Amino acid sequence: RAHVVSLGDLLDRGADSRKVMDLLMRLQGEAVAAGGQMHVLLGNHEAMNILGDLRYVAPGEFASYAELETPAERGDAKLPPGYFGHRRLLGPDGRYGRWLLELPTAVKVNDTVYMHGGPSTVLHGRSLEQLNDDYRAALRAYLAAESELRAAGLLHNEDSYARRPDAAAARVAALPPGDSTTALAALVARFKAADDDPLLGPSGPNWYRGAAFCNECAEADVLLPWLQQVSARRVVIGHTVARHATVVSRFDGAVIKLDAGM
Question: How high is the mean pLDDT of the chain?
Fold first, then answer.
């Protein structure tokens, strides 16, 4: 009858991230069959891999997908071996991408909410169910616009993730005026709006560190109304490593920092 919660950041921790996902996918089924539940939450590194922000992917992590690549893909010397297999399986139609896109951002068990980063003012007014739906929609909106831009030749594999909107806009600006160029400019604007979604940014639930770092007197005005809003006594977070390699609490136990480092 136990519930186990994984707070995210399964990826970008070495060469065996794929095995970690396989394990937790299996445990989800086994837990339900045994009468319990395995909750797996999205962390910022899961979101990064879904969206294509690959700055922390280890060469061995890419290499674990190399057997899925075609000879032509393996011959692309500009990208690490396994890059294309990694992107396929972590894409919205891939085995891992489909799974990750269905995972929640936050879950409540009894009177405790679990999430990766922490609650900011961006979350106020949203139920946990709405937060999970909105976060999933934000990821899908980015992926849909990105896919269209790639199909139009306006995004390249070599483009820096942080510079994608600018790179696409520059390529559109170099095109001759016309209806098709106007339509592409509108697509770039949609992509930029998806890229700027606050849920995916530094104040989103997978990046925000206020509950972990900020002065308790000031941050209480953010944290406590949110806990009341979701009818919870505390929130358990990962993302920000606690000092001295131990679990710690803040706000008189209203925040538990569970990440004790590696």
Answer: 96
